[in-house]
Amino acid sequence: MEPFDDPSSALENFAGTARLFPLPNLVMFPHVLQPLRVFEPRYRAMLEEALADNRLIAMAMLVPGWESEYEGRPPLYPIACLGQVVSHHRLEDGSYNVLLLGVQRVRLIRELQSAKNFREAEVELCEDYYPPEEAAQRASLHDRLSKALLRILPLLPQAQEQVDQLMAADLPLGVLADIISYLLEIDVRQKQALLAEPNVHVRVRALLEHLETAAGTSAATNPAADTFPPGFSEN
Predict the structure, then answer these.
(1) What is the reported pTM?
(2) Could you give the CA distance from residue 208 to residue 149 in angstroms, rounded to a whole number?
(3) What pLDDT, on a 0 to 100 scale, did the predictor assign at position 171?
(4) Fewer CB within 10 Å, N side or C side of the chain?
(5) Per DSSP, which regions of the chain are E strands?
(6) What does the DSSP assignment read for 71-107?
(7) Is the Cβ–Cβ distance between 123 and 106 less than 8 Å?
(8) What is the mean pLDDT, run by run of 10 residues, along the chain of 235 residues?
(9) E-assigned strand segments in 113-176
């Protein structure tokens, strides 16, 4: 499966229980590929169970202050991204290199108590919401995001192929916003807020507002610089 494809087939047998992979500094979005290194024993066990089952893992972000509780169950933000393992390679030391494809937002309903050494939760799937009263504004919002993506292209020639794929795919507005949110170098808490917003129009306006603010700050610091939007993130 390629990124930007519809990954909904991964949910055909999903029963509402998600394995949790919590991290402090990564926000996963639907429709993107995330490389991961899985090395802790508990998360290796989680991955091996997923590979033997539906290959699904939910990437969740730890709430600040997690450090003292990392080995236990520190609090998580309530919206996570369910992903499907599309590629994996086991290394000699037992760790794994993994490619995870974002499938869909999920809301954590309650964490489950289990004898397993990794965390699990009951979750509900969160669909994108397009406000019907603003249907006439959707094309304009899509155009603004597309132009922002094209504008950054000369600054990032290494991303030419990826951007060409994005523009050729004629993506739905919510998908385009998610991919840009994932790629752009913005604070992880801002990314988490974008992930948590189901209303696509609200999400897009928040993303554009951040980009415009970042562009104004950069111009004030260096009037000769054209850095709208900000650069891509390693994430």
Answers:
(1) 0.83
(2) 11
(3) 86
(4) N
(5) 17-23, 33-38, 56-61, 79-90, 96-112, 120-126
(6) TS---B-SEEEEEEEEEEEE-TTS-EEEEEEEEEEEE
(7) yes
(8) 60 91 94 93 95 96 81 89 96 95 97 91 96 94 82 59 70 90 86 97 91 54 37 37
(9) 120-126
